[in-house]
């Protein structure tokens, strides 16, 4: 038998979760809900991708039943500015992709030779995959959002408060990763890699950061030694 949730009175978990969301947004005086799922386009969509979107959709459907006046949307966000750390075993042209390890996924050629980049291909496969199950969602790309400037205000706020953010965040990660941690991940202007750079200075007064390309990963990618200062926007 299903257990009844003490607070909401519902028995099935999507309804229990939806009930909790309704309580929370009423408390906050809001009338909408935006749910987000994340996709790392370093590989093809798989059962984990399905599970994340399915579970979130179940909750939004329950929400639509118990509170139809609340506007609920699902955004499937692709972290396609992330770098490629490893080449998946189930893609073609692995040797080509290997040469681009450490670069942002939208800067790597499509190993299938069909789309503008590695990430564009994987993003297309994600949408086809989700569409085949009839999920209702809006797709968003991290690269597109960055380029559109929608993150600009947030990026400048983060830069302005970087000291406090570093202090709070580094407490949550393992000690060996704390030194030199920054909320920013600059792309090296010389070799194009994102995982080979290390931030050496934050400059909120002019919206920039300084970095050096000095982090290599054994057998995967090498840093190029370049040093530079770039805008965070
Ligand atoms: Zn470099």
Question: Which descriptors would you attach to this protein?
Answer:
alpha/beta; binds zinc ion; globular; 233 residues; Rossmann fold; 3-stranded parallel beta sheet
Please tell me about this protein's structure:
- The chain has 233 residues and is an alpha/beta fold.
- The chain folds into two domains: 1-150, Rossmann fold, CATH 3.40.50.620; 154-233, no CATH class.
- It has helices spanning 13-27, 47-66, 94-98, 118-132, 142-148, 152-160, 162-170; strands spanning 32-39, 71-78, 138-141, 197-203, 208-213, 227-231.
- It has a three-stranded parallel β-sheet with strand order 1-2-3. It has a three-stranded antiparallel β-sheet with strand order 4-5-6, with no helix packed on it.
- A hairpin with a 4-residue loop joins strand 4 (197-203) and strand 5 (208-213).
- Bound molecules: zinc ion.
Give the full name of the CATH homologous superfamily of the largest domain. HUPs
**Cα distance spanning the termini:** 53 Å
Could you name the CATH topology of the largest domain? Rossmann fold
How much helix is in the residues?
A: 25-40%
Compact overview of the structure:
It is built from seven helices and six strands.
Strand-helix topology:
Elements (H helix, E strand, L loop, with lengths): L12 H15 L4 E8 L7 H20 L4 E8 L15 H5 L19 H15 L5 E4 H7 L3 H9 L1 H9 L26 E7 L4 E6 L13 E5 L2
Parallel strand pairs: 1-2, 2-3
Antiparallel strand pairs: 4-5, 5-6
The structure holds zinc ion (ZN).
